[in-house]
Structure formats: C-alpha cells, structure tokens
Amino acid sequence: MNPQHRHSWGLAFGLCLITLAVNLQAPLYTTYAQLSGYGAGATAVAFSGYVLGVLPVLLAFGGLADRVGRKPLILVALGLSMLATLVTLLWPSLEALGVARLMMGIGTGLASATSTAYMAELMATGDPRSPANRVTASTSLGFGLGAALTSLFLFVHHSATPGSFWLQLMLAAIAIGVVWRLPDPARKIKDAPLLRLPLFPAGSLPYSFSMLLAWATSGLVIAILPSVLATHDLQRWSGLSTFTVISCGLLFQPWVRRMQPARATGLGLLILPLSYALLAWGASVGSLAAVLLGALGASSACYGFLYLGGLSAVTAMAGVEKARVSAGFFLFAYVGFSIPVVVTGLLADVFGADVALIVFGLALLAGASVTGWRIVRTEAYVTRLSHC
C-alpha cells in the first residue's frame, strides 16, 4: 500500500472513531431518563445538545483549519470523543448525556470543518469525489456502529456502563496515535477568516428543507424510538435500529450517484414518509421486523437519495461559494436534527408516544409533499428556460 492510501485510511479510521462516540449511548437513553426521573421531552433536549455544539463550530469557526492546520482539529475531536464517553461512563445520567452530546457536537463540528479537505490532500487524487466518498463512508459507518456495539454488549449484560464505552476509549486512543503520525501538508494562513456565514442560492431552499425532513426523521429514531420500543421490551434492539437508519444508507449511495439530483431528491421525498409510517407502526405494535424494514427505507432516503441528491444540487448552484452553500445546507439539516425531535418528545410526554408519532408523521408527509412539489416546479421551469 502506497503512503497516500495508508494515510487516507488512517484518517478514515480516526473519523470513524469520532462519529462512533456520537451515538454510543443511544440504546441507553431510556435508562438514563429513568435513572434521572425524566421523560421523552427531556431526553430529546439532552439529545439536541449535540446540535448546540456542532452548529457554532461550523458557522463561527469554519475557517479555523486554514489557520492551525488540519491534523490538530482531528486530534482535538478524538480527544473530545473520549472525554464525552468518559463522562457518561463515570456519571450515567441524562444530565451527563447532555454534556457529552455537547462535547461530541463540538468535536464533530471541528472534524467536519476540515475532514474532506484533509482527505483530498492526503489522497492527492484528481477525482474530487473519491475523498468525499471516503469521508462520507467512514463517518456514516461510525454514526451507526456505536449504537450497534452498545446493543451487542447489552444483549450479553444490561448495564448503564457497557463494555462498548471502554472499547471506544481504547480504539480512540489508538486512532490518536495513528492520526498523530499523519502528515499535514496544508499551508497555514494566519489571517484566514474564521466566520463563514451560510449562503442560499436561488432554488436551493427546497433541497435544504429536504435535509431538514430527513435528519428530523433519523433524529427521532435515535432519541424517541428507544422509549417506544421499551414498552414492548425491545429497548435492546434500539441500537440496531439506529445502525440501520444511519449506516445502511451507504448501500444506496452508488445508485444515487448515477441519478440526477432532482430525481434522487424527489424519490427520497417519496420513500421517506412511507418508510416512517412502517417504522412508527412497528414501534407502536411491537413489531421488530417492521421497525427494521422501516428504518432501512428511511436510511435509503435520509443518507442516500436526499443527502447526496440534495448536496449535489446545491453544490452545482454554489459556484465559487461552495463552503458557504454547504454550511447553509447543513444548517437546515441540524435544525431538523434538533427542534422537531424536541417538539415530538414534549408531545410524547403530554399526549403519549402514539399521538406524538402520528403528529410527526403528518407533518413529515405535508413537508415532503410541498417540498417535492417545489422541486418539480423548479426543475420544470429550468427545463423550459434551457429549451428556449
């Protein structure tokens, strides 16, 4: 293996360990809530601490990597992932989860601000898609793998501090050693601007809103679904549902790359509400097969059709402002990852989980219908202009 490939796989290993820590505690959300005496609303608030960490870093410190280099940010992110895991290991509670999620958000924000550029510099390839694909694959795998590992340990022995926490600490320590040895070829710019305000080109908002819907659905599966599954004694399977709704989207990405962005996004908006309906019904009646099939369908939409289709569309509209347009795209995504999840959790506390799932489903169906209609109209208008 040549040095470029070895270095790129080393960075991919580090990125995977950073995101692995993010959902490591997902199967224990209900346990933490019970230990702390809170309900689904408070659990969703603690879950959203991640967004409070990641958004300020992405927006206010987007240019930090240009000042200090790429490698230091990855090392700090790995250190924060270990610290977050250690907090929940020593203090298993909902309050600790909120603090840990905040730290993991900061770490993920730091890694996201530089990972694709760093991977491109290490791979030294003329194809700009290869670094992005490797970053997407490694981070998506990590996001789902952490929850799946915890579920496996819980099947053997139920504990508020399972062995997966110690495994993450050990692997992250190894990843720090691996990343420490990587080169950092980027030239540092001492006066590079830190602030990168988001930009929304004409026609990009429907694609950005589709990501809000997608990540709201995946956030609900991670934060709210475990408490619903617990009523049917299926809580230990929540990690597998998290893995399915995030990481299985990778299986569909090669297909999506061959599609036009508008068609991929439209197909994702069709699949998402149907998959959610199956998933929510399965959770309500205690059907694990329906939950996993629904999670697989939602994953194809969230991390396949809508993610790649929407990102490809807004990138094509961006011109030379790709960084600011990408920031706007992910701003919508992370808003979806927080506010709808918190509202659904509060509804579950007041009216019950079934009512909350139905309300979310109706809002998702309405949002997907309107967004899909706007994309179809926009593409039809662009087609008429091109023919004229």
Commentary on this structure:
This protein has helices at residues 3-20, 29-36, 40-47, 49-60, 64-68, 71-90, 94-112, 115-123, 129-156, 163-180, 205-223, 225-230, 238-247, 253-256, 261-285, 288-318, 322-336, 339-351, 353-387. It is 78% helix and 0% strand. It is globular. The chain has 19 helices and no strands.
Note the main attributes of this structure.
388 residues; Growth Hormone, Chain: A; 2 domains; globular; MFS transporter; MFS_dom
Mean pLDDT: 87
Estimated radius of gyration: 20 Å
Count of beta strands: 0
What's the assembly state of these chains?
single chain
Label the CATH architecture of the largest domain: Up-down Bundle
What is the top-level CATH class of the largest domain? Mainly Alpha
- Which stretches are low in confidence, meaning pLDDT under 50 for 5 or more residues running? none
Order of helices and strands: HHHHHHHHHHHHHHHHHHH
How much helical structure, as a percent, in the residues? over 70%
Count of helical regions: 19
The CATH topology assignment of the largest domain is: Growth Hormone, Chain: A
Largest sheet: none
Q: How many distinct domains? A: 2
Pfam families: MFS_1
GO molecular function, one term: transmembrane transporter activity
Domain Major facilitator superfamily (MFS) profile: 1-388
Keywords: Membrane, Transmembrane, Transmembrane helix
